[in-house]
Design goal:
Rossmann fold; 10% strand; globular
């Protein structure tokens, strides 16, 4: 209700499976997920979306349970913010504004640098294929 009253368009889902379905059919500007979702956690949802190439900025609403996870296990998820419960309405609105502002100024992840002025393009290194044991 707070986000709606603040002028944001909001889709609400009731569990992780419903959220995953929505993410597959809609391009969202921002994802806010609760770490305690039925069917799978908010962190599982973010992990699944990142692996699927869904890179919308994400705010994870967390409980104290997240503190037990090693940082290197969640760092690659690139959450825009993790907001610990309990939080105020003002804190949520501030984090939402900051996440959307940062996303608007962030270059696309696959951006190819363009030459500036009369400078020739930089040479590209040869592509090497590396295969892992599971490939």
């Amino acid at each position: 209700m707070l986000l709606l009253r603040s002028g944001y368009a909001v889709d609400v889902v009731t569990d992780g499976a419903e959220a995953w379905t929505a993410l597959q059919h809609t391009n969202y500007d921002l994802i806010i997920t609760n770490d305690e979702l039925p069917h799978f956690t908010g962190q599982d949802l973010v992990r699944k979306s990142r692996l699927a190439g869904i890179n919308a900025p994400t705010i994870s609403l967390t409980s104290g349970a997240l503190e037990t996870l090693p940082l290197n296990d969640i760092a690659w998820l690139e959450c825009a913010a993790m907001l610990a419960k309990p939080f105020s309405c003002g804190q949520l609105l501030q984090v939402v504004r900051e996440a959307l502002r940062a996303a608007a100024t962030k270059p696309p992840a696959c951006a190819i640098p363009q030459p500036v002025g009369d400078q020739p393009p930089l040479p590209m290194p040869p592509h090497t294929i590396r295969r892992g044991i599971n490939e």
